[in-house]
Amino acid sequence: MKKLVLAAALSAAASTAFAGNLSEPVIEAPVVVEETAASSSAAGVWVPLVLLAIVAAVIAAD
């Protein structure tokens, strides 16, 4: 049992010794987000309402 605990402790200590390397870090360019003019969410309601009115008119005509 002592050998198992010792082996686990040594393997945990040895794994941290290899974390990282000597290469230069890669730095990415910052992301630029362009602001667009904000529109009202009510503008997107007109198309479904018009389609619903057309469907209702077709059903009422039958």
Topology (SSEs and partners):
Elements: H1 2-17, H2 46-61
Biggest sheet statistics: none
Which outline best applies? elongated
Straight-line distance between termini: 86 Å
Helical content band: 40-55%
Mind telling me the C-alpha Rg?
33 Å
**Beta content:** under 5%
Which residues form runs of ≥5 with pLDDT under 50? none
What is the arithmetic mean of pLDDT?
78
Order of helices and strands: HH
Structural class: mainly alpha
Number of DSSP E strands: 0
Number of helices: 2
Keywords:
elongated
Q: Your description of this structure?
A:
- The mean pLDDT is 78.
- This protein starts with a helix and ends with a helix.
- It contains two helices and no strands.
- 52% of the residues lie in helices and 0% in strands.
- The chain has helices at residues 2-17, 46-61.
- The longest helix has 16 residues, at 2-17.
- With 62 residues, the chain is mainly alpha-helical.
- This is Ferrochelatase.
- Keywords: Membrane, Signal, Transmembrane, Transmembrane helix.
- Residues 1-19 form the signal peptide.
Describe the structure concisely.
The protein has two helices and no strands. The chain is mainly alpha-helical and 62 residues long. The model has no long low-confidence stretch (mean pLDDT 78).
